[in-house]
TrEMBL record:
Native organism: Yanshouia hominis
Keyword field: Antiport, Cell membrane, Ion transport, Membrane, Transmembrane, Transmembrane helix, Transport
Name of the molecule in the record: Probable multidrug resistance protein NorM
Lineage: Bacteria, Bacillati, Bacillota, Clostridia, Eubacteriales
Transmembrane segment boundaries: 12-32, 58-77, 89-114, 134-152, 164-186, 192-213, 233-261, 312-336, 356-377, 384-405, 411-437
Functional summary from the UniProt entry: Multidrug efflux pump.
Membrane topology, record value: Multi-pass membrane protein
Protein family (similarity comment): Belongs to the multi antimicrobial extrusion (MATE) (TC 2.A.66.1) family.
InterPro entries: MATE_fam, MATE_MdtK, MdtK-like
Primary subcellular site in the record, as a coarse category: membrane
Annotated compartments: Cell membrane
Length: 451
C-alpha cells in the first residue's frame, strides 16, 4: 500500500483531499447518535429521548478518551513515516495493539460497574433513569469494538490513509440504521433496542474491517520481531496520547456537567439539549475533520524537519475551515427549528433545542480557528499544552458560566449555551499566545531542535 507523503509539493489540495474522507467518516459516526435519537423520537417518548441523550453523552465521553489516546499512535506513526522509518512505524502499531487491548478490558469492567452512579451523577430524570442505565450497560458491553475502531482509524491516518477509517465507519453506520429500524421500529424494544443496534453494528464493522485489512499490503509488518520494540513504545504512545485524552475527557465532563445542569431544569429542557447536542455533532464536523487531518499532516512534516511547511498548513486549514463555519453558523442561528424537527415531534422540545443551537452558531465560526490550532499542536507533539488549554477553557469558563446562567430567574437555554463560545474565545487566545512563543523560540534555536 502506498504511503501518502505530506512533506513535498502543494499544501492546500493534499490537506483538503485527506480531510474529506475524515469529514465523511465523522459525518457517518455522528449518524450513529443521530439515527438512534431520530428513531427513538419517532417511535418512543420524551423519556426515551432523554435516556438516549444522557446515555449517549456518557458513552461519547468514553469514546473521546479512546480517540485521544489513539492520537498518540497517529502522531508517532506520522513522525516515523516523515523520518522514512517504516520498520519503526510497525513497532508503533504493535505497541498500540497491546496497549489498547488492555484499555478495552479496563473500560468494559469500569462502565458496567459505573452505569448507575453515572446516571445518578448526570441527574437523569426519574422517568428516564432506568432506561439511561440500560443504555450505558448495553453499549459498554461493546467497548472492545469502540477501542478497535479507533485503533484502526489512528493507524491509517498516521500513514496518510483516511479512506480505510471511512470504510470502517460506513459499514457500521449502515448496520446501525438497519438495526435501529429492526429493534426499535419493528420489535419496539425502545432504548435497549437502540443500544443493542449500536453494539452489533460496531462488532460486525470491526470484523469486516479486519478482513479487508488482512488483504491489503501495508507499509509496515506486524511480526514477533516488532513485539519487543512495540512494548517499549507503549510508554511513548501513552505519553503522547494521555494529555489529549485527559483534555478530551475533561472537556466532555464539562459538557456532561452542563447536561446535568439542564437535566435539573426538567424533562423538556433535557430532551431539547439532547437533540441540540446531536445536531452540534454535525455542525462541528468540518473543524473536527481539520483537527484530525492537521495532526497527521503536521506530524509528518515535523518528522521530516519542516516546521515552516507545517505552519503554512495551519493557515490553509483555518481559512478553508472558516468558509464552512460561516455557513453552518447561519443555518444553526436562523433555522434551528427546522433542524431540530428532524429528531422530535414535540414542539416544546424542538423550540428548546433551537434556542440552545443559537449559542452553538457562534461557536461554529470560532472553532474554525481553535480546532486547527489544536491539530497543529498535536502534530508537533505539544499535547501537554493542548491538555492545559482545554482544562482552562472547560473549568474556568464553560462550567462556571453555564452554572451561573442556570441560577438566573427565567434563564433560557441560549444563555446557558453561551458558555461554549465564551470558553472557545479564551482557548484561542491561549493558543495564539503559545504559537507566538514557539515562533520566538524558532528565531533563537536551530531548526532541528525546535519542536
Amino acid at each position: 500500500m502506498r504511503v501518502t507523503q505530506f512533506t513535498e509539493g502543494k499544501i492546500l489540495f493534499p490537506l483538503v483531499r485527506f480531510a474529506l474522507p475524515v469529514l465523511l467518516a465523522l459525518f457517518l459516526q455522528a449518524m450513529y447518535g443521530a439515527v438512534d435519537l431520530w428513531v427513538v423520537g419517532r417511535f418512543g417518548s420524551a423519556a426515551d429521548v432523554s435516556a438516549v441523550s444522557t446515555g449517549s453523552q456518557i458513552m461519547q465521553t468514553v469514546t473521546v478518551v479512546v480517540t485521544g489516546l489513539a492520537m498518540g499512535i497517529t502522531i508517532l506513526i506520522g513522525q516515523k513515516i516523515g523520518e522514512q522509518k517504516p520498520q519503526e512505524a510497525g513497532s508503533v502499531v504493535m505497541g498500540g495493539v497491546l496497549l489498547f487491548a488492555a484499555i478495552a478490558v479496563f473500560l468494559t469492567v469500569l462502565m458496567q460497574l459505573g452505569a448507575v452512579p453515572l446516571a445518578r451523577l448526570m441527574h437523569a430524570p426519574p422517568q428516564a433513569f432506568d432506561r439511561t442505565v440500560s443504555y450505558v450497560r448495553i453499549c459498554s458491553a461493546g467497548a472492545v469494538f469502540i477501542v478497535a475502531y479507533n485503533l484502526v482509524g489512528s493507524i491509517f491516518r498516521g500513514i496518510g490513509d483516511s479512506k480505510m477509517p471511512l470504510i470502517t465507519v460506513a459499514i457500521a453506520c449502515a448496520l446501525n440504521i438497519a438495526g435501529d429500524l429492526f429493534f426499535v421500529a419493528f420489535l419496539r424494544m425502545g432504548v435497549a433496542g437502540t443500544a443493542l443496534a449500536t453494539v452489533l453494528s460496531q462488532a460486525v464493522s470491526v470484523l469486516l474491517s479486519v478482513g479487508i485489512i488482512r488483504r491489503r499490503e501495508l507499509p509496515f509488518s506486524l511480526s514477533r520481531e516488532s513485539l519487543r520494540p512495540g512494548l517499549g513504545l507503549c510508554g511513548r504512545i501513552f505519553f503522547l496520547g494521555v494529555p489529549i485524552a485527559f483534555q478530551d475527557l475533561l472537556v466532555s465532563i464539562s459538557f456532561l456537567v452542563i447536561l446535568a445542569i439542564v437535566n435539573s431544569l426538567g424533562l423538556i429542557a433535557s430532551a431539547g439539549v439532547g437533540v441540540a447536542e446531536k445536531l452540534c455533532a454535525f455542525i462541528m464536523l468540518v473543524p473536527s475533520a481539520y483537527m484530525q487531518s492537521m495532526s497527521a499532516f503536521v506530524a509528518q512534516n515535523i518528522g521530516a524537519g519542516k516546521p515552516g511547511r507545517a505552519k503554512r498548513a495551519l493557515f490553509c486549514g483555518i481559512l478553508s475551515s472558516l468558509a464552512a463555519g460561516i455557513g453552518m453558523a447561519y443555518f444553526s442561528f436562523f433555522h434551528g427549528e427546522l433542524m431540530a424537527a428532524l429528531f422530535s415531534n414535540d414542539w416544546d422540545v424542538i423550540f428548546a433545542a433551537a434556542d440552545y443551537m443559537r449559542a452553538y452558531a457562534i461557536d461554529c465560526i470560532l472553532t474554525s480557528f481553535l480546532f486547527c490550532l489544536i491539530g497543529y499542536f498535536n502534530g508537533c507533539g505539544r499535547t501537554f499544552f493542548v491538555m492545559i488549554q482545554g482544562i482552562i477553557g472547560a473549568f474556568l469558563v464553560r462550567i462556571p458560566f453555564s452554572y451561573l446562567m442556570s441560577r438566573l430567574p427565567g434563564v433560557s437555554l441560549f444563555s446557558i449555551g453561551l458558555a461554549t463560545p465564551a470558553s472557545t474565545v479564551l482557548q484561542i487566545i491561549l493558543c495564539a499566545g503559545y504559537l507566538l512563543l514557539l515562533e520566538k523560540r524558532r528565531s533563537h534555536i536551530p531548526k532541528e531542535n525546535l519542536i
